[in-house]
Amino acid sequence: MSDLSGFPVASRWTARHPDRLQLYSFPTPNGVKISIALEEVGLPYEAHLVNILKNESWTPEFLSLNPNGKIPAILDPDGPGGKPLALFESGAILLYLADKTGKLMPADPARRYETIQWVFFQMGGIGPMFGQLGFFHKFAGRDIADKRPLERYRDESKRLLGVLDKRLEGREWIMDDEHTIADVSMLGWVRALKVFYDATELLGLDGFRNVMRWLDAGLARPATQRGLNIPPRP
User: Fold this and answer.
1) Which residues lie below 8 Å from residue 202, measured CB to CB, with a gap of 6+?
2) Distance CA 176, CA 134 (A)
3) The domain 9-103: what is its CATH number?
4) Where does the GST N-terminal domain start and stop, copy by copy (predicted)?
5) Fewer CB within 10 Å of terminal CB in the chain, N or C?
6) How do residues 72-124 score in pLDDT, each as one tens digit?
């Protein structure tokens, strides 16, 4: 049986199945990237709820796993060379899972890098911009009298949606007919614009027809439906 006792995070979130990959997360757009990916690749794992509403990601135990204090993070008892591997940053985790399982990633080297560039597009653009839009449109930022920050993130979010919409023209998925970690990385964020940030009208989402078609197809996947609720929201 795998021994995780050397990792402080395991003292707070005790593993019932220490031989499985351990996921520490919360069902946010970043968090569900990994639960959806794990459901897609079929790798056995155990999910632990890190309640960010109670600042649990800032506890010493979680910070020992991710010093940046953000979910998601994983602890794989069967990492490279058979040694445990702790990993944070959702984009890095997606790449790791794809490499470990040989799934959600094209085999062709050129297409592999093309996939990775779209994951970086999500990490550097869609995630930060959509998140700021949500803050200024729905959460505390909406009470700020100066609406220039909201307008900035609205306009940038629309621009990014336009980039994605053009990429998806004539394509089922971001990488043509191959569903990859690029799709998984973005799905939760685009979904959040509709169901969490209430930004459909603000952004004119229905006008991005390729994106909306792609979103519906992604949400219809059984692995996505399961992963969106792992770990369950408290």
Assistant:
1) 137, 154
2) 30
3) 3.40.30.10
4) 18-105
5) N
6) 999 999 999 999 999 999 999 999 999 999 999 999 999 999 999 999 999 99
